[in-house]
Amino acid sequence: MTSSVLAIQSTRVIGKTGMILLVFLVSCSTMISLPLDKVAMLGVLGLLLFHQIFQNKSFSANSLFPIIGVASYFLLPYLLNLPDSSLIIFFPVLGLFFASLVSEEEGFLDIIYWAIFIHIVAGILFVFSSYLVGYNIYVHPMYDKGLPFLHAAKGFTTTVQSFGTLLISWFLIFYWKKESGILTRLDSIAYWIAILGLILTFNRNTMVVFYIILFFRHRRIFITTVVLAIVFYLYYFEFINKLIFNVSTLNSRADLLQAFRISFFEYSAWKEYLFGHGNNMVDEVIARTTIYRTGYIENGTSVLLYTYGFIGYVAYLAAVFMFSTLLFIRKKVFYAAMFFYIFLLAQQFTHEFYATTLYLMISVFLIILNSKSPNATKGCVFPPAE
């Protein structure tokens, strides 16, 4: 009996470790030249579907119908703009399907937690190695802010903000575990390692999101760090201006939208206004006439308008408001505020609608929405300060 129990436990440990590594690969878009993150996402989807079928579980209509609706709508801009449309516009459907299946498994939260933590540790090590051994492609020297000696962590993601999304997702799970009273000493150690990873992003958007976390979860620390930040800012005025308040990056983002503005507002007909262009990239002919000569659209609102039209963008806004309201109604105010900021405001800097990192975060929010915490009331607007 003992040997059979040990065999079952060993199998579970091996299975969970394998799943953690597979989810880790879901977060890795630049580890190799191939789209490893998408392939890994399909692998996780396959395993989850097999698990659903094996246990004779039916798909939730609340999850399935919205995804079918999104996929059906995406067909419109795709078909209306052939042959210039792109299949990449359907990736959010895959991402949402992935998130909906993951949300059916509450235990998956711990798998995402440790998978992301592996990536955080790797990102930190790459930063240190870039100083000790030499530059590597997994860091971002901050030439754009006039601080090339600072190497921002981005791990195996395409941008520093995507790495920041992984960090914020990890912190969301950490605080959910804390609410549930299941934190261990290992979690406490991991927390400070994640804090180091957060600092090494040098990313203002990620820092703002973390400050929102501090406001809700550590009010005294929030007030203390704000005071210290003001003092530090006054003392290191020029350096902080370059790092945080550098307007050149904001101006460059505005210039990057030039191709979008020309294509969408000057050359679009009614169908493009309503249903979009069915492509997340501006036509190369127009892009060549702009400063940066690129059709890439960095701003979240702009890419949604351009790709899916006003109808698609309004539907996105409605979904964000609806999901935030659901979290609020279930007394998860902290998570409602986080979701609202991340999906309505943070995406304006560098959107991630076609990155797997965003759908890992959506998975986290969905699991938290569907879970019951013994201390759910701690999500009130003004919880006891820690």
UniProtKB/TrEMBL annotation:
Keywords: Membrane, Transmembrane, Transmembrane helix. It comes from the Bacteria. The keyword Membrane applies. The chain crosses the membrane at residues 20-50, 62-80, 86-104, 111-138, 158-177, 189-214, 220-237, 303-329, 349-369. This is O-antigen ligase-like membrane protein. It comes from Algoriphagus ratkowskyi.
